[in-house]
Each structure stands twice: as C-alpha cells, then as structure tokens.
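User: For my dataset I need records formatted as: sequence, then structure tokens, nothing else. Please produce one.
Assistant:
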Amino acid sequence: MRTVGLVILILLASCRLTTENEGITTEMVISSGEDGTVSEISFKETLFKFGEISQGEKVDFVFEFENTGDIPLIIASVKASCGCTLTEDWPREPISPGEGGSIPVQFNSDGLRGHMSKSITLVANTKPKTSILYFEGTVIAPETN
C-alpha cells in the first residue's frame, strides 16, 4: 500500500500544473508542507456583489488576502468559471507569513443578461488546497422591439 502511495506522489510531483504560473510546480505545492504544515490564506472578503450594471459594462474588483500560515504561501493557479472573467494578474512568487497580496478580477457583461453568479478558484499549498471566491450581480439588457 505504501508503494502505491509513493508512486502516486512521484507521479504528481513530476507533473507541472497547467497554469501560467512560471516556476511553480505540483512538487512545490506538495512538498511545501512535507512536515504536515500548510499555509493559510485569509481573504478580506470572498463575495463581491456588484449590484446592477448595464449590458456591456465591465466591473473591476480586487480580492485582497493575507498569508496567515507559518510557511510561505504558494498560489499554483487562479481560474475563472467562465470566459467573461479575467484573472491574469495574481502573485506568482511565494508570499511570506504575515504578508499579503491581491487578485484583481474583471467581469465583462458584454452579451450577458440577468442574474450572474461567477466564481474564481485558487489552488495553493493550503488545506483545503482550493479556495473559491465569488461575485454576483445583475446585468440589465437594453429593451428590444
């Protein structure tokens, strides 16, 4: 049984996460807490309500966080739930305990209408490995004849 676990760990460690984060590998995320320690990430808020906007408007928001753990925080990936949301500019270097960072998000309402509820998923060396951020609001479409 130990052999199977070791093989799985080696396979995971040899794979690169499919992210734009240059230099961060699955091995780094797994091995960052080999002694059982993991980092902790604390967000100022995990839900942003943008209210009502007109179709075609873009809404920008920044999710701010702090590493409240005892080891450097490594964010391996940040992925939006849809193509209407951009999350390209996020920290790619390890974040020391007590330090903070931000994840800017832009929602593009072009072609959308009605209530919107979207999410952004972070993968990091935390427990659990994923954190989910949410934003929601309503896109008002112009009247058509």
